[in-house]
Amino acid sequence: MSEFIEKRNELLAKKVIEGLSSRNMTGYYAADKEEALKIALGIIPEGSSVTMGGCMSAKEIGLVDALESGNYTFIDRYKADDPREAMLKAYDVDVYLASANAMTEDGVLVNIDGNSNRVSAIAYGPKKVVFIVSMNKVCDDVDGAMKRARNVAAPINAQRFDINTPCKKTGACFNCKSPDTICCQFLITRFSKHKDRIHVILVGEDLGF
Questions:
Q1: 8 A C-beta contact, residue 117 and residue 148
Q2: Best exposed site among 85, 154, 180, 189 by fewest CB in 10 Å?
Q3: pLDDT confidence of 9, banded at 50, 70, 90?
Q4: Residue 166 belongs to what domain range?
């Protein structure tokens, strides 16, 4: 990565972190995946119960491997006999891992969900929510963040699933009402009612979608 991009990310991250602080959320900046992993493990106490939605960023920084091999109770819905039961356990865990489909320079998080288990857990339930968000997801404002979530993140995520949506075929949002749509619930997190609940690790390397 260019040193100029690195510097830009570092400077922009300071602005985002200030925005998060004004919204009762805590922000951190990690230049790379290794630093992001170190910060995440510093936020998650040993012995914690932890789960997540489909957070690719947590996997990419090595956090899932670290939790599965460490002194933590990691609930993996993909390995559970009853995935729905595993998803319901998310509301009572110590730590929920997430990313954002997009966020704004002043600290607003934007997420779109199909089953809605992810956005509901972000909004309420888990004692702590830890976001891992790469700097390429930071947008000027909520309108820009919504556009990114719908036209970048959603079409890419649609490629991961055996579904039939217009965005999977074209790569762009059609604001569809397809039975297979993964854009059922939109969550805009602009403030955390509970201090020390939401932590956002901004990462200088591109992660997720």
A1: no
A2: 85
A3: very high
A4: 3-203
